[in-house]
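Quick one, tokens below:
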């Protein structure tokens, strides 16, 4: 059974696996492209792209994974810092600073390459900056209150979208004609591709639920009891989400209620699965490929955002073209992207070996 300050290998793996998906150098998206139209390959890899508007694919779960993992890690971090003698006041100060830094980083990264400053919060770092502080403030509330508030944030969002009175922004589930788009026009220049900044409010539920799961895993309950609770919570959340689809379509870009619950349910079940395999069954060696990345998520995210992966791609692609020019161009492109993906992992491996971990 995990001790209160012990690292949870399944959590590090889950975080690393999520980051490896995010930094896949376009490898997964490539096979969903138009050149594979009508093939079973595209049918499979479409799961690694977002739907045009309504619907749910595997790729829609990546951000909920990350936001949930942040929540799971909070109780472990707090427990560790308290064990080192830090005061609760210092912890609150650190949480506030971390939240501000994440928001500023997210906003700054979204304006990179723009000819003027724009206040966009769609970036995952900015969204986490908002949900992190909400979840942290609530973490010492009773679980019933945390659940009630998280559901309340989802309900509040649904009410705002359905009752917003301004013409042109009063169609809750129509792209660019909803409350979320209006909110973005207030703080910037509107949404991009239908993605809205207000998503940070309903998806705060994912981070709050993560805190609840983290506290469960830190508790003195047996591993079996923890696993059963996680599975039950995931199934209930899924059931709620799918029952809502009759009145709330599944749309990730505006984080509808059905989407928040369905994605949250799958996320809790994913944690349960990794916890069962890695921490309960003890199959840890195979998971190190994800743990290595999970120890440096901020580094690899920033590395990719600033285009370094594109530079690596530009270097390796001509070599594959020279060696494998006689093959189909898709082979060259796929191998180039796979090599860049491996390079991302290898950078994290080098940092891991040197015990260098970039944190806020």
């Amino acid at each position: 059974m995990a001790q209160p300050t012990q690292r949870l290998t399944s959590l590090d793996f889950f975080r690393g696996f999520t980051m490896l998906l995010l930094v896949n150098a376009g490898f997964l998206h490539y096979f969903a492209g138009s050149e594979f139209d009508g093939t079973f390959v595209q049918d499979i890899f479409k799961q690694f792209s977002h739907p045009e508007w309504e619907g749910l694919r595997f790729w829609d779960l990546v951000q909920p994974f990350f936001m949930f993992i942040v929540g799971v890690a909070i109780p472990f971090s707090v427990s560790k810092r308290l064990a080192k003698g830090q005061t609760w006041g210092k912890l609150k100060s650190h949480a506030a600073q971390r939240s501000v830094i994440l928001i500023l980083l997210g906003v700054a990264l979204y304006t990179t390459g723009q000819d003027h400053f724009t206040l966009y919060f769609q970036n995952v770092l900015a969204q986490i900056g908002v949900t992190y502080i909400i979840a942290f403030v609530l973490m010492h509330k009773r679980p019933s209150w945390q659940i009630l508030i998280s559901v309340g944030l989802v309900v509040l969002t649904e009410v705002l979208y359905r009752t917003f009175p301004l013409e042109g922004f009063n169609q809750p589930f129509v792209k660019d004609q909803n409350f979320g788009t209006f909110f973005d026009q207030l703080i910037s220049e509107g949404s991009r591709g239908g993605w809205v900044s207000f998503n940070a409010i309903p998806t705060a539920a994912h981070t709050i639920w993560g805190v609840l799961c983290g506290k469960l895993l830190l508790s003195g309950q047996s591993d079996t009891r923890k696993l059963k609770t996680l599975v039950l919570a995931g199934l209930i959340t899924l059931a709620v989400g799918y029952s809502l689809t009759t009145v709330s379509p599944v749309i990730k870009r505006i984080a509808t209620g059905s989407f928040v619950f369905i994605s949250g349910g799958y996320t809790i079940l994913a944690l349960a699965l990794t916890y069962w395999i890695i921490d309960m069954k003890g199959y840890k060696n195979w998971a190190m490929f994800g743990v290595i990345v999970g120890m440096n998520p901020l580094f690899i995210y920033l590395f990719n955002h600033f285009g370094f992966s594109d530079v690596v791609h530009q270097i390796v692609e001509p070599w594959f073209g020279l060696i494998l020019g006689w093959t189909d161009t898709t082979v060259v492109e796929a191998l180039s992207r796979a090599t860049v993906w491996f390079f991302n992992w290898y950078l994290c491996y080098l940092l891991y070996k040197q015990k260098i971990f970039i944190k806020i």
